[in-house]
Amino acid sequence: MPRYLLLLHGDKDSEDGKMPSKDILEQMHAYNSEIVSAGALLGGEGLHATSKAARVSFPPPDPTNPTQPGSKSDITVTNGPWEYSMENPKGRSGESQRPVCGFWIIKAKDMDEAVWWVKKGPLAGTYVEVREIFECGDMPGMTDEMKELEENK
Prior knowledge:
Helices cover 24% and strands 22% of the residues.
């Protein structure tokens, strides 16, 4: 059964480190319990604000050898917090302009079922990005040895 990553995008309150109200936490607990009872929840957590985060940026590959990563000495680390547009959830090129404040990993028969689970959540004023997770069989370059290592982790 396919697995899906559900990325919950935050708002000004979550980015300011404010916890949800007791009522919202109780609703979220009930929602998570329902997903667990259905056998669909594989994991999930809330995340601290970006003020406690770091962003690691890698240089492009060497143009003379594009299969090799760029120089490790050119890796940059930027400590949070970062600026986000809380009014407009999408930037010019469609990328997220709100920080991720939590996630779930669920199993569902297809994208429609994954979206169905998201719609049941006690969410308001935000959005959830639903992404299917690659399985070993989805990657044609995986050798049998690599697949075995992935399946046994």
